[in-house]
Design goal:
191 residues; alpha+beta; Chemotaxis protein chec; eight-stranded antiparallel β-sheet; 5 helices; globular
Length: 191
């Protein structure tokens, strides 16, 4: 089944984002064993060249979890958090007091990888169920670097085919706010 995300139907994308955020909030709550509420996600379609500005600038340190997507939709999905949110998430999960992502060890990276994997899976499940699509994802990859460096990967791989990204800003709230960005970069060259 060939399927392309209709970039002009932002209302559908917003509804999918609301449901995906709900799935993600439920998954996050079960991980940290606390009630998690969510803000209404902000959905946009920025161009690649403006993407790092959307998440605090090219030199902003971020923690990103990337999965490749295959099936009825191909491309990649990323969950990107700024350093403060990543530290809050790790501290909630591991009951630690880390202040910098540069201090993440194997356990912290593993925790971020698992959460990113679960959150991206939640979004992909929402898309799959709502649009009746078959979507598979790869093993997650993690990167801790400046936003410009992290975002260069999808820009190089898909920028020649498609110049926009489905960008979903989400915020999860418990006693700490954990905000992040879901990026879905479809590969239309294979569809």
């Amino acid at each position: 089944m060939d399927y392309k995300i209709n970039l002009f139907n932002i209302d559908t994308l917003k509804e999918i984002s609301n449901i995906g955020t709900g799935y993600a909030a439920t998954s996050l709550a079960s991980l940290i064993k606390e009630k998690v509420s969510m803000a209404v996600p902000d959905v946009s379609m920025p161009e690649f060249k403006h993407l790092s500005d959307c998440i605090g600038g090219a030199e902003n340190i971020v923690v990103a979890v990337l999965v490749n997507v295959s099936g009825d939709i191909t491309g990649m999905m990323m969950y990107v958090m700024n350093e403060d949110s990543a530290c809050s998430l790790v501290n909630n999960l591991l009951h630690s007091d880390i202040e910098s992502a540069q201090d993440f060890g194997e356990m912290e990276v593993s925790a971020v990888t698992e959460v990113g994997n679960i959150l991206t899976s939640s979004y992909l499940t929402a898309i799959s169920k709502l649009l009746n699509l078959t979507i598979e994802k790869s093993v997650p990859y993690v990167s801790i670097d400046m936003a410009g460096a992290v975002l260069s990967v999808p820009a190089i791989e898909f920028g020649k085919v498609f110049d926009r990204v489905l960008f979903i800003k989400s915020e999860f709230m418990n006693h700490d706010n954990i905000s992040g960005y879901f990026l879905l970069i479809p590969d239309y060259s294979k569809q």
